[in-house]
Amino acid sequence: MARLKLKEHLINRDWCKGCNICVHFCPKHVLELDSEEKVVAVRPEDCICCRLCELRCPDLAIEVITEQSDHDATSTSEDAVNTSEQDD
Amino acid sequence: MAIKDYIRQRYFPQMWCPGCGHGTILNALLRAVDELGLDKNSIVMTSGIGCSARISGYVDFHSLHTLHGRALAFATGVKLSKPELKLLVPMGDGDALAIGGNHFIHAARRNIDITAIIMNNRIYGMTGGQYSPLSGPGKKASTAPYTTIDNQFDVVNLSIAAGASFVARSTTYHVLECVDILKRAIQHKGFSVVEILSQCPTHYGRKNKEGDAVQMLEFQKKTTAKLGSKALENDPTLIPRGVFVDIDAPEYCEEYDKIMKRAMKETLQKEPLKNFGNQANQTCDMA
Amino acid sequence: MTDNIKTDENVIKTNNIKFVQGNEACVEGALYAGINFFAGYPITPSTEIAELLSKRLPEKGGKFIQMEDEIASMCAIIGASLTGHKVMTATSGPGFSLKQEALGYACMAEIPCVVVDVQRGGPSTGNPTHVSQGDIYQARWGTHGDHAIIALTASNHQDVFEITVDAFNLAETYRTPVILLFDEVIGHMREKLVIPEQGKLPIVDRLRTSVKKGVDYHPYLPREDGRLPMSDFGGEHRYNVTGLFHDMWGFPSNNPKVVRELLHHLIDKIDNNAHAITRYKEHYLEGAEYVLISYGSSARSAIHLAKNRRERGEKVGVLELQSIWPFPEALVREKCANAKAVIVVEMNMGQVMKEVKACVDNPSKVFLANRIDNKLITPTNIKTLLRMIQGRGV
């Protein structure tokens, strides 16, 4: 399976409510809240494109754009399963 | 399609509190629909009243935001009258199992092809944090200042006893599992119940000192375990997750189809000249 | 029907004549109007409607479901109406009470549906097997909040049939629930019914939107004539339906302007058309000095008395109301203008009488002839009051 490569974290600042879920559960500590309590990707180079931030976001405010899937966002949760650190 | 193609963006940001698990359930549900490749015109989402019920306004499906507890009764009318539609019915815990408890068990008993999603945050959020039939004993709520003494329902056991042919449980922490279970539930022919443990940091979390959304999700991770897992074997007090029931059983609308065929046949034998054409003429306005 | 078959209007086809209960006449009317979905729950004295439709609907490809309660029945028909079907439920007092919340929902969300209430004695369980007309105000104000409602009634089975067809037509025309207020006597009594040929009575079908796929459809933006073309669930237009105050897309709104305009729309669409909704019959009313106002089974006694008095030269006539809500104020005022006295004949404590008093020029000439003891009011009961008013002794 081809490894996904990060293009960018598309963050909708108007929708983000700063709940911190994505920040706390990011396995690589890529995300942080800024002074306005909105999420920002501070270490995008560490991102493994597991999409758990995107999947857990209650506000649909974050999207992980990858090189292969690009804007059509057709990747499935199976992609993430292989790289996630989700526990039982 | 992108997830944003399944929502009514003009109504975002959504109205739930920061960290509310209901948004995550919306997120998971949209992904399940997307991954199944369902036609938006074929989906009707019916909801009741409460925080959970607002979910139907945000989705770009046919949406029916109804009365407290009655979502499944409305959904039954929609489904039986047009069985080709997919019915998604997200409900809150009080919505589904207190005021709507009777509709819930009867929809399950009929095994009508509807997907019921119980967004269980163990509290009435919209009215300010009163205890629900899923709060359980020893919990604080705005109507239980000295803690609750009411036992809670076990949604899984209740659903099985009532006759649901697909019963599952997940949490808003376990999002991948959640998407997977929702996909199976939607594809299942018959009444499917998915209980998703959700977090209400504003009321339940605050009153019961369970912390913010993050801490509540950590709690879900700690206190639940997959069916058949070592963790569950070692500690049976953990709440089991996964698919508990997935059986083939006669589905209500299909059974009614058979009744219609019988009724038509018997009448044709009795009155062979009678015409059974569809009487309804469709009219269009010129607006 | 093909053109080469000539039907003599005067030859009544015997297979169209039935000897039926009022409840069955209602079922025949509903089928004639094109009902294809019914949800109900057993309750005396309306149960025969559910029983008959459980047989008749599947025969024509329609659906019948017995729900877990009256609440669910009302909710289910609203759901089925949204998929484009003509729908009905039937009940009696206690069940009608349970339906009220969802009835209000149908008012707010503007869902065409027909609700039959075969009235029995109340309050509470009251007298399930006996007659009453005590639900007049419940039909008007049973659900909470300001709203307008249409309620119709009838006094014989031919009229039950026709008013049921009418109820479906009005529900579709005004996108509103329509209540059929029958009573136990009408529901259970048997008499002749002649079912008209299809096409004889007008049938109003649903007004559907002509807005094309991909064009923004506004389900709650009334046209200039106040009507709102619908789009079926499952069709090309996906929109929101809610019991909350809502904008033209059906999305919840608490904007004061939106709230005010919607409430006005909901009430105006019916009240401003009261003249078009008003249904009534006159019996011996020409030059009547004593006007009896009645409806439902009690009107039968009133008509009997009027006929009897006319034969003896007394100027007694009957204004039979077939629409109770919106209350036909203009009609009642006009028909009572020259009356020496107006007697409202009904089987309750004067629910319609209060409405009559409120709209006639001289309320002190309005009297009530009623019975509230389970029994059908008789012509003699009414005559007793008439004699007292006339000062002629009983």
What does this entry look like structurally?
The complex is a heterotrimer of chains A (88), B (287) and C (394). Chain A has 88 residues and is of the alpha+beta class. Chain A has one domain: Alpha-Beta Plaits. Helices cover 17% and strands 19% of the residues of chain A. Chain A has a two-stranded antiparallel sheet with strand order 1-4. A two-stranded antiparallel ribbon of chain A has the order 2-3. In chain B, the strands form two sheets. Chain B has an eight-stranded mixed β-sheet with strand order 2-1-3-4-8-7-10-9, with helices on both faces. The C terminus of chain B is likely disordered. Chain B has 287 residues and is α/β, with parallel strands linked by helices.
Short characterization:
The complex is a heterotrimer of chains A (88), B (287) and C (394). With 88 residues, chain A is of the alpha+beta class.
Secondary-structure topology with pairs:
The complex is a heterotrimer of chains A (88), B (287) and C (394).
Chain A: E1 6-11, H1 21-25, E2 31-33, E3 39-41, H2 52-56, E4 62-66, H3 77-81
Antiparallel strand pairs in A: 1-4, 2-3
Chain B: H1 21-36, E1 43-47, H2 55-58, E2 62-65, H3 71-81, E3 86-92, H4 93-97, H5 101-110, E4 114-120, E5 123-124, E6 130-131, H6 155-162, E7 166-171, H7 175-187, E8 192-197, H8 201-207, H9 213-223, E9 224-226, H10 230-234, E10 239-246, H11 252-270, E11 283-284
Parallel strand pairs in B: 1-2, 1-3, 3-4, 4-8, 7-8, 9-10
Antiparallel strand pairs in B: 5-6, 7-10
Helix pairs in contact in B: 1-7, 5-6
Chain C: E1 17-21, H1 22-33, E2 37-40, H2 47-59, E3 63-66, H3 70-82, E4 87-91, H4 93-109, E5 113-121, E6 127-131, H5 136-141, E7 150-152, H6 157-174, E8 177-183, H7 184-188, E9 190-194, E10 207-208, E11 240-242, H8 256-271, H9 274-277, E12 280-283, E13 290-294, H10 296-311, E14 316-321, E15 323-325, H11 329-336, E16 341-346, H12 351-359, E17 366-370, H13 379-390
Parallel strand pairs in C: 2-3, 2-4, 4-5, 5-8, 7-8, 13-14, 13-16, 16-17
Antiparallel strand pairs in C: 1-9, 5-6, 7-15, 12-14
Helix pairs in contact in C: 1-2, 1-6, 3-4, 10-13
The CATH class designation of chain B is Alpha Beta
> How are helices and strands ordered from N to C of chain B?
HEHEHEHHEEEHEHEHHEHEHE
CATH architecture of the largest domain in chain C: 3-Layer(aba) Sandwich
Structural class, judged by helices and strands of chain C?
A: alpha/beta
- Gyration radius over CA of chain B: 21 Å
- Class based on secondary structure composition and strand pairing of chain B: alpha/beta
Count the E strands of chain C: 17
